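ok posting inputs for the 2-oxoglutaric acid job
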Amino acid sequence: MGNVLTKAQIESFRENGFCVVQGIFDDHVIEKARGIVDNLLSSPSLADLAEAEPEDSSKARRIWAPTARDKVFVDIAEDSRLIDAVAQLIGDDVVLQYSKLNVKPPQVGSVVDWHQDFAYYPHTNQDLLATLIYLDDATRENACLRVAAGSHRQGLLSHEVDGYFGGKITSLTDVGVDESTVVDCEGPAGSVVFLHPLVAHSSEKNLSDRYRRVFIPAYRAADAFPIYYGPHAAHNEPNAKLLRGKPAKAARCEGGAWPLPIAAAEFNSLYQIQEGAHLKDGGKASTGYFAHEVTV
Ligand SMILES: O=C(O)CCC(=O)C(=O)O
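and the output
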């Protein structure tokens, strides 16, 4: 076990709810991952392995289950330097909770509205951590991640729309987050954004002519367990994997009342619920049954 993050980076994570770190991955690993994504995006069976952009169905916005598509994503998600860094932030017993790959294609790449990951995945404690690994250089121009620095200290904010879980914070100011705290997480390909589960984040539409692809493995402390075993937990939990340390013999619980992500109808992805697309086509009531991938 090594120290990958500096004291300043750890302090910045505690203070701001995120930090952007370079130099964890060799360029050739990121190049290899990008090549695999290029191949997947040109696959004739793209429709079976990805969620399409509503504006142009020939373009994908989300590749489902990247670790099942190619071992390079397993190697990245389980990379010892990355897990060293994760352990510095959430402790030595580390579980891989799930992973996903957002594509953000040129011109059409969908907006991700403001949200906190914990609203989708409430757990017994807050030692959860998403890592966003840029596969392309990411700048404001091609819609890098944006974070409301320090918002994790404001607790869980409302994600309700019309009385149900809507997967988004409709307005930062309405929930008391100062818009002047918003920071662009820019970085060259290979940069890793470490994200606290309660920090509000978003990204804009990609209007540039460059992709902004990001692989997102998400981790948690082994003693953090989902407190709502809804469809998304039911989908992810069987594949949750202890990567380091010991399995928990007890759930560590932090007090509080946590709203549960109960939506008005089934939804497959964060994009769909944020757009309200889950309410169209008859808006099938939430039954716990899902026909497709459900990693939000
Ligand atoms: O792809 C992005 O810009 C943000 C991703 C995100 O927040 C998510 O998928 O939960």
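notes: Residues 287-292 have pLDDT under 50 and may be disordered. Residues 27-41 form the longest helix (15 residues).
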